[in-house]
Write a structure and sequence with these properties.
alpha+beta; Butyryl-Coa Dehydrogenase, subunit A, domain 1; Butyryl-CoA Dehydrogenase, subunit A, domain 2; Butyryl-CoA Dehydrogenase, subunit A, domain 3; 3 domains; 7-stranded mixed β-sheet; 7 strands
Amino acid sequence: MTSKATCAIAGFPTLLRAVAAQASAIEEQRRLPASLAATLGQHGLFRMLVPRGLGGGELAPLEVLDIVEMLATADGSVAWCVMVCATTGMLAAYLEQETAAEIFGAADAVVGGVAAPRGVAAIRSEGFAISGQWSWASGSAVCTWLMGGFRIEGESGGPRLAFFPAAQVRLIDDWNSLGLRGTGSGSFHVSNLSVTGRRTCPVSAKPRSGASPVYSFPPAVMTALCIASVGCGLAQAAFGEIGHHVEVGDEMIGTLTAALARQRAARALLREQIALAWDKTTSGDDLPGAMIADLRLAAVHAARTSAEECRVLQDMAGGAGVPFSGPLGRRVRDAQTLTAHALVSSRLHRQLGEQLFTVSTAGAHG
């Protein structure tokens, strides 16, 4: 599959082949090789959602999803790290211009992190003294800056995000997972680190005036959509793998076809909801709550359907799906692991359902 976005990246097919060739080594090393990270950066993949004014791609949502999905067909861990850093790049539109340029402006900038408020801050004259430890920091070993969520000690206000130069944090090698093993999603720690106020922003911040419509998509929502696209790419690759094990006339061909239909339907829903939301934002309108809920539901459904269908394919493959580091086994493990992320958790079905059906009921009786 090709798209306008992937065709615009010089040498993208060659890059995919290089990623696929290193997939086993990436998993064994449990992190992105620095040389591969540099190549991904040279292709602009970590900065796809950084504003153009800072040298980023400022790509439309479906363009980003196309790229992430295609990377996932080559290797799930690489796609995951690109996804995390690319969506973190959206925050450049939420910071003051000078600060955004400091953090995101360099051509080789790679910014990742964890938004969960695992840090605690004391107020200081020029900002904050922050201490905390954040887990699940994917790609942290190749980042130039890391972002961490925190709360201000003794205050009841909402959480904030802080940006730390990578040289000022301590990385902890505690990532040993079932899947997405090559993401290097270990923890990082800071202790009483001084951070100027301008290097922080509220989680509830709005993008700067005049920002591109892409920044009307909340970063957490864009992250959920991209997680789903990683799942879709893994499923696409798994369907390609199972083709080596199923022949014409095979009694399981019906099961395979039904699985393919479910997967394509979930992906189609994801893309349909994104297209509707993009039409809304490019018309100058804000995304209503119901539309955001539709986006989140589509992301949950596509991510979890991808994992379920990968498992169906593994079962169909029999012994060929057993090897831990085999291509099919790795994709099944990666797809299952991504469903652990809070943004695509099955627990969201109730939350989103209450929101969607309440909105629907209110509209019906309005």
